[in-house]
Amino acid sequence: MSANKNEKKFVNREISWLSFNERVLQEASDKSVPLIERIKFLGIYSSNLDEFFSVRVGTIKRMHDAGIKAKSILYGTPREILNEIQRIVIIQRDKFENIFTDITKELESKHIFFVNEMQLNREQSEFVKNYFDAEVRPRLVPLMLNYIPTFPYLKNQVIYLAVYLWRSTAEEKPLYSLIELPANILPRFILLPNINKRRYIIMLDDIIRFGLKDIFANFQHERIEAFTIKLTRDAELEIDDDVRKSFFEKISKSLKQRKMGQPVRFVYDRNIPRDLLDFILRSLELSDFDNLIPGGRYHNARDFIKFPQMQLNLPSYKIKNNIMHRTIKQHNSIFDAIKENDILLYYPYHSFHHIIDLLREAAIDPKVKRIKMTLYRLARNSSIINALINASRNGKDVTVVIELQARFDEEANIEWTQKLEDYNVRILDGVPGLKVHSKLCLIDRIEDEGMIQYAYIGTGNFNESTAKIYADHGLLTVDNQITGEVHRLFKFLENNYKTYNYKHLLVAPLNMRTKLNFLIKNEMKNAKAGKQAYIYVKINSLVDTKIMEKLYKASQAGVKIKMIVRGICSLIPGVQGLSENIEIISIVDKYLEHSRIYIFCNDGNELFYISSADLMVRNLDNRVEVAAPIYDPMIQQELKELFNIQFKDNTKARIINKSRDNQYQKTKSLRKCRAQEDIYTFLEKLNSTPAKT
Questions:
Q1: In three state form, how does the secondary structure of 1-62 look?
Q2: Per-residue pLDDT at 243 exceeds 70
Q3: Catalytic machinery residues
Q4: Per-domain residue ranges for the chain?
Q5: CATH class for domain 3-312?
Q6: pTM value?
Q7: CATH H-level superfamily of 334-494
Q8: Across 654-676, average pLDDT
Q9: Which among 676, 632, 614, 645 is positioned nearest to 344, based on CA atoms?
């Protein structure tokens, strides 16, 4: 197939991702969303964009610099994609600034005001001066750019104030200085003393601007101004192939090199004097740089995630109590509950503490002999790690795979590895060339019947912090059809030279792609035979060209396909003769939709899976991933109902289409359907009903 045909059939993943991030921006503009949450969505949008440039744009830029055309892979040349990214980002930047302006007006209606250094009254000025002298100035290191031999190194995604010093009577050129904003030490938003019932907020940036005359008092310049700049660097790790070094050492070295990554975006205050901007760009060798983004007075809006909500008493999303799973009883053994029935947990509706409690129980249970886990991203103060250490100290045989290449979590995972090794936990390196992304736990327990294995297979990380905001599923089971294969997979992780066959689990990169292809073909066969045929999928990303081709063919064969794709979606649904039987929506709401579900009609004998894998090349071919079958009829029914609730969403669901315009889905229902609210109600009712045994 030619590249041109591919371009018409598929959307470039980067362009599709930008469409997803615009859905995040939509949440910031949605006036039905609590104001503090809208501010946080601005922060999430900005944080997402920073990572996008560090990771994805950096990759495309390297392809362009290396002369790699890759048109059939990218559905466009690297240059075309970079140009389109630039165009879309500038449009979104203007939307962002308009939304922020609207939000500030709404804050003002609630007597909350942003002020800058020029808008302070005498009492506020005195407060800012004292705060500047006591907290800010000691942390500033101004660099005089005219007097140092080489331009200083700019850190990745750190805010700098480029200072312009000018005197009208002097013949010499203006002086330039650079100040790093200490936002990693001090809060970005500082509350000023109230005036009557009015609250005032000033940015750390403007407190530094307030103090500029004191900082540069000895220069006697009449005009001193500061303009924000920020450089984003390529965050891809370059791992060397020195066989004398351990993988641990290679990752540690690569993390140091990441800090020196090549520039991929330079953002600046559009009001910066041209001579100062030109000086900076020349010094950084960015004069002909592609991704120069003119912006406003403030950057790093990701700090809005930490906006001072409590002090301002702004309403937010109501935090609902976690629903206790109906089969897990307080003060009873979780092992007994799992042995009675398979258990499907759904965070954050159910509490992730069920898993922590399971590990705590295992750590002190004399019947438990072994615990094996795969870990990818962990909470800052991880209760999972504490439970594993406790288990090891209690004489259990604890084995852990910690993925050292979990992007942006590498340093934390290195520290966790060292901590676990200090307590005699056995650490597995995983599989050379493959990230271990599966979410597995296996517990061996001696019971009256002999050795019983308890398995947990999840769609999200063992992370109690993100489990409060990420919507994920986890299966607890003693079904030996599943636990036996989880045991085999851990043996594979221990001894990579020996692979195993899997009849029940779908394991990437061993059999997952092949099995998914078979299941899709099976639906096509049934559709052609006049039987009912459908595929329901919920994932984060759909990029894999081979799978998308199969889905197009399935649609042409008459298979009805419904998909919920939160983020990147390169497939184009609803195209006559190609994908008219495919419907795709995306849900962006207060929780981040993260679970992966696969449902196949299978001639009426439906097949259900939950998985750690998205439909991407990296997941299917370059990672160790697991999809677990759901065999319990009650859980199958529950899982299908959950999918249907989400597909009925007419409040937060957007339609994925060729134009990528993120229209909200409208359904025939006269009732307002908001999936995340309706799921809570559904699970609350379900879990108030005693479980059948």
A1: CCHHHHHHHECCHHHHHHHHHHHHHHHHHCCCCCHHHHHHHHHHHHHHHHHHHHHHHHHHHH
A2: no
A3: 437
A4: 3-312, 334-494, 506-687
A5: alpha beta
A6: 0.90
A7: Endonuclease Chain A (3.30.870.10)
A8: 93
A9: 632
